[in-house]
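User: For a reading group we're discussing how well predicted structures match intuition. Take Adaptin ear-binding coat-associated protein 1. Before you show the prediction, I'll give you the sequence so everyone sees exactly what went in.
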Amino acid sequence: MATEGEYESILCVKPDVNVYRIPPRASNRGVRAADWKLDAPDWTGRMRVTARGKVAFIKLEDKISGELFAQAPVDEYPGIAIETVSDSSRYFVLRIQDESGRSAFIGIGFGDRGDSFDFNVALQDHFKWVKQELEISKQSQTPDNTPKLDLGFKEGQTITLNIGQGRKRDKSRPQSAGGFGLLPPPPSGGGSKIAPPPIIWQYVQPASQPQTTRCLLDLDSSNSNSVVQPNPNPAGGSDMWGDFSAPEK
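Assistant: Thanks. Here is the predicted 3D structure of Adaptin ear-binding coat-associated protein 1, as structure tokens, for the group to look at:
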């Protein structure tokens, strides 16, 4: 049962729940909600599911005043404190208890299937948490007999460290102005040197200069001082440069 000093947490609240008086169980077969007077519930109110420690409490309270009508402590689920019926998922058999410890079985039901689903899941989650807490408690109390790995030094055991004796860098390699080392020349194969590539000479033909128009000047290569005589009677009666008029006097 719950101990004093533990805080109470609310797991689920449903505003509408119906309570039924159920007939005594005639055999060990499952309880059927069809045997109840479903159309005439004996009490209607709200249901509040709380938890203190590992124990859950299903409390039936008045909708307006909040006065407690009955409550059922639940130590495990599914269990004797709350059972499902065989013909519906909306109805349950609840074992209620008073302060003196007397108990009675009543039937409860929800009008909405979603309310019964939430009620069922709230109880499942709580007792799933209780099971995990028990497993953790058992593991903490069970001594660990597995051999532990000893990484400590044995008596007289020593260790040698080589510090500062790494591979020295080659400082004879020349470096460029940027601080990066130059690559060495490729090794010669068999002592023979690689001949430099041949120099190819190419003759470029100069561009031909345009010939001077023979109509302007016809120079004799043998007599550069001779004057070209103009044609007194050009063909067609006009100069090839056009007709020129005499200047006015």
